[in-house]
């Protein structure tokens, strides 16, 4: 399929990482996010880990949210050594303060040194950690749904704040935690913030198959990327999910020094898209301050000129950018069925 034919059937999605050396000033991240927004990127990610110093990614993007208007905001959130109830609340809060532009990228903490920072338990095997991450993703979705739409009444004459019939206990029992619920934060604007998982590793891929809205894969050629996308879609289908609701983005490192390198990146993206390699690209700049500007001013215009990338945001929420519908509330659906 040619690049032109591909653009006629589905849009190309583009995202970028804002990482690099940690900065402790909010204007740095605000400037980068606004730059990505000017380029009409779907979302930006901000990596995080207990293994390195730096500000908390989720808190940083919560600060970026009111300073931006359309760009999606996706922090890495470590699910190991953290409380799932608090994780769910924090991600839901990001969706509220961004007016429906939040996502989250679950990740795990693997080392004994990181475990000692908390002192709760020793480091566990990777399979166990990703099993826990899957449970965190599952219970987070339940907590986001524990408030139905319209649960808030705020009726001063009667003194009723909520409709108790629209609040639900989740009563979740996992291997390492239990959560009763309901949430303390009302249902997020998107229903569920977008779940982004780096699906390169086998254990992480198993989590992506079950829970991801966006799966990131690392590949060095379009054939490998296409095979990864096809495998993910097949496994998603086998788990009873609609593969058309999964976006697979190739995550590639980018180091640009001139506009001519930026144009070359557009050519590469166009070639890979023409071979059906992915639904889009997640770009990881070596130097975000330098490379992101070249991407926005050099790569993006070429992609737009060839009809591969839209020149406007199709809506206000991250789900709308990705062509995904608002998440259905599992408890409201059960109530209607009964």
Describe this structure in words.
The chain is α/β, with parallel strands linked by helices. The longest helix is centred in the middle third of the chain and has 20 residues, at 126-145. α7 packs across α8 (222-238) and α9 packs across α10 (288-305). The strands form three sheets. An eight-stranded parallel barrel has the order 1-2-3-4-9-10-11-12, surrounded by eight helices. Strands 5-6 form a two-stranded antiparallel sheet. It starts with a helix and ends with a helix. The chain contains twelve helices and twelve strands.
Give a short summary of the structure.
With 338 residues, the chain is of the alpha/beta class. It contains 12 helices and 12 strands.
Topology readout:
Layout: H1 3-9, E1 13-17, H2 26-38, E2 43-46, H3 57-64, E3 72-78, H4 84-97, E4 103-107, H5 112-118, H6 126-145, E5 152-155, E6 160-162, E7 172-173, E8 178-179, E9 194-198, H7 202-211, E10 214-217, H8 222-238, E11 247-254, H9 259-274, E12 280-285, H10 288-305, H11 318-321, H12 330-337
Helix pairs in contact: 1-9, 2-3, 2-10, 4-6, 6-7, 7-8, 9-10
